[in-house]
Amino acid sequence: MEDERGSSEGPAKITEPVITVPNPRAFQQTVAQVTVPTIPGQSKIMTSESFTTLDTFDTQFPADSVEWCPIEPYRNLFVCGTYHLAQEDLQTAATGEKVPERLGQIYLFQVIEKKLLRIMKKAHVAAVLDMKWAHVRLNGKILLGVVSADASIEIYQLLEEREPKLHLTSKSHLDGNIPGLLALSLDWSTGRCKSNDNTHASIVVSDSEGKFNILQLNETEELEKTISWNAHEFEAWIAAFDYWDTNIVYTGGDDSTFLRFDLRMSPKPVSINRSHHTGVTSLHCNSSKEFSLASGSYDETLRLWDTRNIARPLSELNLGGGIWRLKWDPFFKDYLLAACMYDGFKIINCQQSSNPVIIAQYMEHKNISYGCDWSFSTSEEFSPDSSKNLALIATCSFYDHILHLSTVSLTDD
């Protein structure tokens, strides 16, 4: 994983990765000190003391993805995905070329009384690169999308039984003719859907050949690939819908470009931005604030955008580590949770989009910080003291294969 995604230590340069993937690039950036701008009347940065670790779990394989279920009454459930490279076991591709076998697991967890983790289910799959729940029910069902190192996208249904579990309902491969192709990220088009009566949805999947793919999910949970467009010279680390107009797709690649596509037009980007100094690794559209988008990069800089003007960001903030994931909070949409690889996890207050501020950092993980997500449960649901404005968060790190459940106070007492 790290070898394919790059490192954030050392001077910026291209290095040869240990793991060979199509068009391999691994960037290394200088680890800078976190520079925190101050706003009159705003408190200084909080530390890990703002967080309270509730429970931990050893995932056995390196952990890289965490996603909380957004749908009632299952907001106390989340999944964690893992990625293990079995370098000693090689499988022969159809072309005769040998590629490393990548193994993974999907854990389904429940948060029970006293805020402890209870493992509900563990499934053995190809190595997991990304997972996302559909934001609403589709045909009355709660669905999870998973993209993996075998270039597959899988759809799981959460079976609403006494003991909830995941059931594989559909699986599709991006392209079976490209040895070593990886499906790298996915996003659902359902970010602003309010009704649970939806019957159709689209999924965008980026891959290691630099493409993004659009798949349609019909009422029987079958996937049909409708678009496969070239976007980046190297890996397309991230692709995301504009939730306000799902004809628009944003992509970020290892070629350091940030692109916008209109699916109604030709397969060429309608805008190209080169503000990022190295690979663009994370994009997340704000579902409550139109024209608001956040991007992250190996260059350690968070950028906030007004999508009406992609020429330049509204603001830039160094987070001290390569930014692998960015997640808007599910309640206010004012806070970002960031996985900063070699510099832990950060929470950024973005109420003033021209001047975002780091308000908390979680440094309890001792290895590469890749996966993080906010719980959709309100503080009243898991804390007797709602005045503290607590958020419930899950985080995971790679080589030490550790998952943490914690709370963080968004109020500086």
UniProtKB/TrEMBL annotation:
InterPro entries: Diphthine_MTase, WD40/YVTN_repeat-like_dom_sf, WD40_repeat_CS, WD40_repeat_dom_sf, WD40_rpt. GO terms for cellular component: cytoplasm. The keyword Magnesium does not apply. WD repeats lie at residues 273-309. GO terms for biological process: methylation; protein histidyl modification to diphthamide. It is an enzyme of class 3 (hydrolase). Pathway: Protein modification; peptidyl-diphthamide biosynthesis. This is methylated diphthine methylhydrolase. It comes from Cephus cinctus. The lineage of its organism: Eukaryota, Metazoa, Ecdysozoa, Arthropoda, Hexapoda.
